[in-house]
Amino acid sequence: MIVKRVSSRDGRGLAGVGALIDYVRSGEADERILYQGARGFLSRDPEVQRAEMLARAHGALRSAQPVAHWVLSWREGEQPDARHVEEAVDVLLEETGLRGHPVIHVLHGDTENVHLHVVVNRARPDGSVVKVNRGFDLEALHRALARIERLQGWEPEAGARYEVAPDGVVVPRDRGATGRRISARARDIERRTGAESAERLAQRLARPVCRAAASWQDLHQGLAAVGCRYERRGQGAVIVVALDTGEVAVKASRVGRTCGFGRMQARLGPYQPITGGVLEVVPVTPGPARTGIDPMVLEAYRAWRADERRRRAKAEAELAERERLALAELAAHHRAERDALDKVPERGMVWRILRRVMVEGQARARAELRARWAEERQRLSARRQRLVDFEGWLRRQGLEEMAERLRMAGAGEGRLGQASDHDPEQPGMALAL
User: Fold this and answer.
1) What CATH number should be reported for the domain whose range is 2-172?
2) Which of 44, 72, 132, 402 is the most exposed place for a label (fewest CB within 10 A)?
3) How far is it, in rounded angstroms, from Cα 179 to Cα 104?
4) Nearest Cα to 53, choosing from 428, 433, 309?
5) Alpha carbon distance 249, 237 (integer Å)
6) 284-297 pLDDT per residue, tens
7) Alpha helix segments (H runs only) across 233-294
C-alpha cells in the first residue's frame, strides 16, 4: 500500500471543500465507486453531511486548510472489501488523533489500483484545529499504513517507512545500507534514470567511512577507496562522488549527521586536506535504485541514454562547424571587398561614401547570417525531444510489470503530498460493495 496527502489550495473556503466532497463521492469517468462511508456527523443524509462539513470548515478561522484529504492505494490485484475499508479508517483516525471528527471515505476502483479517499475535518467544534503529529502528518500516515498492512495482511511497499515489530510496536523500517532517506531531488533523479543517485551512493559508500575514520587522513584514504572525496566548501563541506558519468557533490550533512563538517571537526579536530599529493579516486557505476530492477536492463537503458546524448552532441557539433565555416567564408569575402576598396588611389568623397556603404552592408550580412544560424539552432532544439525517463523507456520496451514496480516503489518512498489531476476530492455515505 501507499499513502498520499493531497493538498488543496482552498481547504477552508466553501467552494473548495464542497468541490472536494463532490469529486470524491462521484469519482472520474473511468472509476467505479465501490464503497462509501461517513462518520462523526449528526445526520445520515449525504447533503446534510456535506453542509456539516462545510460549516465546521468555515468556522476554523485560524487555519487555511482544516480539511485533510488522504488517499490510500492498494497494489494491483489487491481487492479490499467494506470491512477492510472500515478497519483502515479506524487505524488512520486513531494514529492521527482525529477519532470522532467528521470523516467521509470513499473506495474508488479503476483498471489498475483500488484506492480509498479519506476526507477528514481537523477542526473542533470551537474552531480550533488539530495539528496531526505536530505538523508531521505524513509520518503518522505511514505509521498507520504499517499497522493496516499488518492487520489485514497486505504486502508492504519496498520504500515503506515503518513496520510492526513482533511485539506489536510500530518501528522505523530498516532501510538497508543507508538507514537514511534521500532528498526529493535525488528521488526524482532516480525515478528518471532508474539508477542510484549520487546522494544514495554517498550514503551507502561514504557514510560508513565517515563514521569509522580515526583521523582526517584516514577519512580521505577511506573515501578514495570507495570513489569519493571530502572537501571543504564555504562554511561546510561536501562529499564528492566520482560517478562514471562525472563528479557530483553532495552536502555532507545530507549523507549523514555524523558526516557534517561540524560533527567531523568535533571528532577529528580542525579540518586537514589531503597530504602527500592527490589520492586516486576510481569512479563508481551506480546500481539499480530499486529492488526488482534487472541490472542488465538498467545497463541497456544507460547505454541508450549515452548513445542518444552522443548523437545529439554530434548533431550540435556539426551544426556549429557549419556555422563556423559559413562565418569564415563571409569574413573572407568581406576582407576581399575591403582589400579591393583599399587599392583605390583616390580617397575623396566618393571613396568615403563607398566605404561607408560597404561597412554597413557587411554588418547587415553578418547579422543576417547569425540570425539564420540562430534559427537553425532553434529548429534543431525543437526537433530534439527530452530524453525519456527509465519508466517510460521500460514501457516502450514492453516491460510493463517492471515499470509498474518502479512507479509504485517510488511512490512508496517519496514525499507524496501534491494533488495532480484534480484539486477537489469528496466524501460519501455507505453504499453496497
Assistant:
1) 3.30.930.30
2) 44
3) 36
4) 428
5) 9
6) 888 887 666 778 88
7) 252-255, 261-268
Q: Return the SS3 of 40.
A: coil
Q: How many residues does the chain have?
A: 433
Q: Nine-digit cell at 320?
A: 556549429
For the stretch 52-101, pLDDT in tens is 998 888 888 777 788 999 999 888 778 899 999 999 999 999 999 999 99
**Cell numbers given for 312:** 545529439
Q: Which of 187, 178, 236 is closest to 211 using CA atoms? A: 178
Residue 1 in contact with residue 160, Cβ under 8 Å? Answer: no
Amino acid, single-letter form, for residue 403:
A
Run of H or E including 314: helix 295-342
Instruction: Note the pTM of the prediction, 2 decimals.
Output: 0.46
For cell 573515501, the residue is 223
Could you tell me the CA-to-CA distances from 32 to 17, 29, 104, 420 in Å, in that order? 22, 8, 17, 19
**Cβ distance 129 to 77 under 8 Å?**
no
pLDDT tens profile 223-246: 999 999 999 998 899 999 998 888
Can you tell me whether residue 417 is helix, strand or coil? coil
pLDDT tens per residue, range 325-357: 999 999 999 999 999 998 888 888 888 899 999
CA 251, 257, 262, 266 torsion: positive or negative? negative
